[in-house]
Write a structure and sequence with these properties.
The complex is a heterodimer of chains A (191) and B (244). With 191 residues, chain A is mostly helical. Chain A has one domain. Chain A is built from four helices and no strands. The longest helix of chain A is centred in the middle third of the chain and has 134 residues. The termini of chain A are far apart. The relative contact order of chain A is 0.02. About 5% of the residues of chain A have low confidence. Chain B is 68% helix and 2% strand. Chain B contains seven helices and two strands, in the order ββααααααα. In chain B, a hairpin with a 2-residue loop joins strand 1 and strand 2. The mean pLDDT of chain B is 89. The chains are: A mainly alpha (191), B mainly alpha (244). The interface between A and B is large, with 49 and 63 residues.
């Protein structure tokens, strides 16, 4: 900028004839120097005092109250946030506990059910075995009984046959022996 | 006469001649425009601080942005110790800014385009900073002329250079602002004169230059106020925190 001013100075000097200049710069005329300094000091001092005493405290107060408000609001928001986070944590813990509880209940009931089923199964198994045993026994009994009966019936038939054929009763003990012999033979044959 | 680009810097008295013990202290057009700038600053700050809204209105926002802008500038360049000087820097910046900006209005007078005005500021700052340095650091403040880490052989030369640079501070500070404002306004006036002298046929080129220059000058008006304030901060920093 100073260089520019020098160039400009030169150009204005060159243009001097064109503009029919008043000589030189009015700035260098000392006639009103004292006046300018004097009024500058008075006016600047008064505006300095105005700004220092009135305006700056006002602006500063305003800015400070705003910053205070913002800080307070932020702090409040922080507290609310913390509370909300706490609540959320509590809620999560509750849910976790509930989940664990439900799992426990579920597994417990399942185990209980399994045990129940097992017990019932074994009971039924036992009963079935018992029943089977009983049935088998009965069958065995029936078998032997029926066999005996068959023997008796065969003996009867044989004795009645003998009676019909020979007209007299056969020897009962020999008939019995023969029948049992035949039955045994039949059994052997079958097997 | 009106086409003389230096005519706009002419100072003339308004009202009666005031003379106190042989010194002419008349109220001039320069004083009038200082007063106008000060009144505009007051008006802006008055409107900006009239309401205390939590969510600021536009004008309130402007004053608060100005406050924050200067507060940041001071804390960045001069640190925490410079806080008591905040009102001074604030006033300095905003007053110079308004003087520069008011000067951009056509037919107005640019207060800061006068070397005596900027020199008054600069000398006041120079003396103030020097006194402050001596009050805070005593005679140790003279260390500012003796940078550390310089070879002994070079020390006398460096010290002389430092003293010269320190003493030329008020001149560089004042001439920077004054020359920028004067050059800009002279240039605007010269191009304005070309528009008239070249007429309807050739005047369009200097007119477009004038428009562009006006934009540039508004930027310079802000920039020079900022530079003036920040250099004041840097000088303050030198006095408050002795680095050398």
């Amino acid at each position: 900028m100073p260089k520019l001013s020098i160039v400009l100075f030169a150009s204005t000097l060159l243009c001097g004839s064109l503009f029919a200049a008043e000589a030189g710069m009015p700035q260098l005329d000392p006639k009103y120097w004292a006046s300018q300094s004097f009024w500058l000091i008075i006016i600047f001092l008064s505006i300095y005092l105005l700004i220092d005493r009135i305006f700056i405290p006002k602006i500063k107060g305003n800015i400070d109250t705003r910053e205070d408000k913002i800080r307070k609001d932020l702090e409040e928001a922080k507290i609310f946030k913390e509370e909300a986070e706490k609540k959320l944590k509590m809620y999560k813990e509750l849910i976790d506990a509930a989940k664990i509880d439900s799992k426990k209940v579920l597994s417990e009931s399942r185990q209980k059910l399994n045990e129940d089923i097992q017990i019932k199964k074994t009971n039924i198994q036992k009963e079935i075995e018992k029943e089977t045993q009983k049935a088998e026994d009965e069958i065995k009994k029936l078998k032997t009984e029926s066999l005996n009966k068959i023997n008796l019936v065969s003996e009867d038939i044989v004795s009645s046959l003998l009676k019909e054929i020979f007209g007299e009763d056969g020897n009962k003990s020999s008939i019995k022996a023969t029948v049992s012999e035949v039955v045994k033979q039949q059994k052997v044959k079958k097997t | 006469m009106a086409t003389n680009p230096m005519h706009q810097f002419q100072v003339y008295k308004i009202g009666p001649e005031i003379e106190i013990s042989g010194v002419n202290l008349s109220f001039t057009n320069a004083s009038l425009f200082m007063l106008i700038s000060a009144a505009l600053v007051t008006l802006l700050l008055l409107l900006g601080t009239r309401e205390k809204k939590l969510v600021p209105s536009k004008i309130q926002l402007i004053s608060e942005m100005l406050y924050n802008f200067i507060a940041k500038m001071i804390s960045d360049t001069a640190g925490k110790k410079a806080k008591p000087f905040f009102p001074f820097i604030f006033s300095l910046f905003i007053f110079i800014l308004f003087c520069n900006m008011v000067g951009m209005l056509p037919y107005s007078f640019t207060v800061t385009s006068h070397i005596i005005v900027t020199l008054t500021f600069a000398i006041f700052i120079f003396i103030g900073v020097t006194i402050l340095g001596f009050v805070i650091h005593g005679f140790k403040y003279l260390k500012i002329f003796v940078p550390s880490g310089v070879p002994i052989v070079l020390l006398p030369i460096i010290t002389i250079i430092e003293i010269i640079s320190y003493l030329s501070r008020p001149i560089s500070l004042s001439v920077r602002l004054f020359a920028n404002m004067m050059a800009g306004h002279t240039m605007l006036k010269v191009f304005g004169g070309f528009v008239i002298s070249l007429g309807i046929v050739g005047g369009w080129l200097p007119l477009s230059f004038s428009v562009a220059l006006t934009g540039l000058e508004i930027l310079v008006a802000f920039l020079q106020a900022y530079v003036f304030a920040i250099l004041t901060c840097i000088y303050l920093n030198d006095a408050l925190n002795l680095h050398h």
